[in-house]
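Form P-L/3: holo structure prediction, ligand adenosine-5'-triphosphate.
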Amino acid sequence: MLFGKKKKSSETDGLEMIDLENDSSSDKEKKVLIEFQNVSRKYSQGEHEFYALKDANLTINEGEMVVILGPSGAGKSTLLNLLGGMDSASEGHIWFDGEDLTTFSDNKLTKYRAENVGVVFQFYNLIPTLTAYENVALMRDIKNGTSDPADALAMVGLADHMHQFPSQMSGGEQQRTSIARAVAKNPRLLLCDEPTGALDTDTGKEVLKLLQDMSREKKRTVVMVTHNSFFADIADTVIRVKNGGIQSIVHNDNPKDATEVSW
Ligand SMILES: Nc1ncnc2c1ncn2[C@@H]1O[C@H](COP(=O)(O)OP(=O)(O)OP(=O)(O)O)[C@@H](O)[C@H]1O
Ligand SMILES: [Mg+2]
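OUTPUT (holo model):
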């Protein structure tokens, strides 16, 4: 049961999502949603160039749950920002559903982010002058077909806190508001940067379950960055990043249910 919500998500009017065309497809018929081809992101440091990400190649299927692991500074957030069109590659190509993001104009990239991407930021990025409810409700201005903010907040256990401002919430409550905001948007691509970093184990598990349900039941593609290697067990694909490079990509045929994982 998810934060005391008894209805199956397929029956909810809260987080009910538009089924994608391949919702009923079997694992064998997976469709590639994202492809990185030799993607690099470099920064200038005086006269030197520094690669936050170098020559990354990867493929992510629609509806997959992907976990990105790696030490601090490895390039995980950089990778996530590139996936979400929040940053631009210095080199290489990033394909989303057959279109190359690296060729998009600013307007087209804005549209891509608005229509396809939901983000749980590492540092929440809530608007301080808006309540939890208002922060989630903002998604309505960005995309059609978003969930009711009250239902999304109830899904993360914040039904009784929705009229509080971020400054009146604990870190974990702010993090859950940020998760509700991203999930309410019903995005094709849900990017989560350390989404359980501020949560206790039980609440963290509930969030993992919510994210896994997004992938398994709603066929949303979920990409989660974490330091917690136990989370690898629940992923369809585990990408390990180190020193700006992709160290390994491992596919897991039998991922654990989020409720089974412990740390
Ligand atoms: N805008 C920037 N300008 C210069 N260097 C940057 C910039 N953004 C990131 N970096 C550098 O790129 C490297 C990778 O950063 P990134 O934020 O992707 O790491 P991370 O794996 O997410 O780390 P953490 O686990 O601490 O969040 C770091 O060394 C960081 O300092
Ligand atoms: Mg980071």
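COMMENT: The first strand starts at residue 32 and ends at 45.
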